[in-house]
Write a structure and sequence with these properties.
By secondary structure, this protein is an all-alpha fold. The protein has one domain. The protein has 4 helices and no strands. Helix 2 crosses helix 3. The longest helix is centred in the last third of the chain and has 21 residues. The radius of gyration is 11 Å and the shape is globular. The two termini are 23 Å apart.
Length: 61
């Protein structure tokens, strides 16, 4: 999901801010360093992804 968020032009810092996570957490997820992220962390990224994915589909109409 982070890779796809990057594809929308968001940086790790922007993703972290929008998902209310630390930059280091998002960076570790993006690079694969985080082997077993907390459920709450994954959920925050998932919410952001869903919001961005929905917004981009709305823009396509």
């Amino acid at each position: 999901m982070i890779e796809q968020l990057h594809a929308t032009g968001l940086t790790c810092r922007q993703i972290a801010e929008a998902a209310k996570l630390s930059h280091s957490t998002v960076h570790r997820l993006a690079t694969g360093e985080a082997r077993a992220p907390a459920y709450s962390t994954v959920r925050q990224i998932e919410r952001l992804f869903a919001a961005k994915n929905f917004a981009s589909k709305e823009g396509d109409r």
